[in-house]
Each structure stands twice: as structure tokens, then as C-alpha cells.
Amino acid sequence: MDETVTPNDELVFSIIGDKELIWRQTMSYLYDNSNDISEVWRFYKDEKSWLFRTLKKKKTIFWIKVLDETFRIAFWFANRLEPIILESNLPQRMEKAYLSSKTFNKSRSIYIDVQDLKDFENIKTLINLKLEN
Fold it and tell me: How far apart are CA 60 and CA 54, in angstroms?
């Protein structure tokens, strides 16, 4: 929460605890499946928190917010991709969450508060959808 302290792996992992493995797997999966990935930490005054953003060139792949003992990963998809998302193998609860999420700039979000390795399977699906579309 301190605007003057840019997060690093050591700090993040001390906060998210055993979710470090899923964070590392997520980043490895992203880098194993794409080139030209960059990472940016930025402090957002309106949220009063740091957000981690991954990009492929200028396209955002996902955002991460660090929470106590976990992290939230968020993906934004253009409304035109709705049929592709609904045909994916995401759990029905995530599809419903996407359909009911608020539209912003002709996009809607899907997010996961990471709890266990089952979440990593959904994260992989969402990364693939972002990289393919």
C-alpha cells in the first residue's frame, strides 16, 4: 500500500505466502507460451494500491492485485469475444461472472482470487484466450 515502495518478488511472496507457487507457475506459463512479454508495477492513487500488469507489446494480458495471503488476477475481454469465452472450458460460474460484470470500454472482466491449483488451470485457459484473441 505504500506508494514509495515498489513491490518486488521478495515482498510479494512474503504477503501471498503459499500462493507463490501459483504466481511462479502463472508467469512461467505466460513466458513459455509467448514472446515479447513485459511486466509493469504501477501505483494507482484511486485504488490506493499497486497493480502488476503483464503485456504483450502494448496489449494487456492480465492484471494482478496482491491481497493478504493470495492475489487476484484479472483479465479483460472485448464484448465481441463473448461467444469464444462461453465456448471455452471455463467453469460455468466464471462465465456467469463475465456475463454479469460491468462493461468498460466495450470490455468485461473475469477475475480469480487465487486459492489453489485448480485456479491455475483456469488461469492457463484465460491466458490462452488472451494470447489467441
Answer: 6
Exposed, middle or buried: residue 124 (CB in 10 Å: 0-12, 13-18, 19+)? Answer: middle
- Residue 56's pLDDT is 97
Whether this model's pTM surpasses 0.85: yes
Tell me the one-letter amino acid at 21.
Answer: L
Name the grid cell of 114. Answer: 487465487
pLDDT of 1 strictly over 80: no
Mind giving me the DSSP string for 70-83? Answer: EEEEEEEEEGGGHH
94-110 per-position pLDDT tens digit: 999 999 999 999 999 99
- Does residue 32 fall inside a structural domain? yes
Q: Can you give the CATH number for the domain in which 74 is found?
A: 3.90.1150
CB 33 within 8 A of CB 47: no
Helices (H) and strands (E) in the chain, counts: 5, 5
73 phi and psi, to 5 degrees? -110, 130
Residue 1 belongs to a domain? no
Q: How far apart are CA 42 and CA 99, in angstroms?
A: 28
User: In the structure grid, which three cell numbers stand for residue 2, read together?
Assistant: 505504500
